[in-house]
Amino acid sequence: MKLTIPAFVGRIAFSALAALLGAVFALPLLWFLFAPFNARAELGLAVPEPWTLQNFVTVFGNSYAVQALWNSFIQAIGGVILIGAAATLAAYALSRSSIPGKGAVTYILLLFSSVVSGSAAMVPIFLIISAAGLMDTHIAVILTFAGGLLPTAMFILRDFIDSIPKSYEESAMVAGASPVQAFFDVALPVIRPGIVVIVVWSFVNIWGSFLIPFILLRSDRNMPASVAIYSFYSEAGTPIVTLLAAYSLIYSLPVIALYLFVSWKFGFRFFGGIKA
Amino acid sequence: MASVEFRNVTKSFGLFTAVADVSFDIGDGEFVCLLGPSGCGKTTSLRMIAGLETPTSGEILIGGREVTHLHPKDRNIAMVFQDYALYPHMNLADNIAYPLKVRGEPVDKRHGRAKEVADVLKIGHLMDRLPSQISGGQQQRTSLARALVYPAQVYLFDEPLSNLDAKLRLEARGFLNHLQRDMGMTAVYVTHDQAEAMALATRIAVMDQGRIVQYASPIEIYRRPATTFVANFVGNPPMNLIEAEGTNRDGRLALKADGLTIADLPITDVIGKALSNSPKLTLGVRPEHLSIADTETGNRLTAPLFANENMGPESLVTVDRQGSRVTARIFTDDHLSLGETVTLGFSTEHIHLFDSMGNRIPAVGE
Question: Checking CA distances to A146, which of A186, A237, B111, B261 falls within 20 to 30 Å?
Answer without folding.
Answer: A186
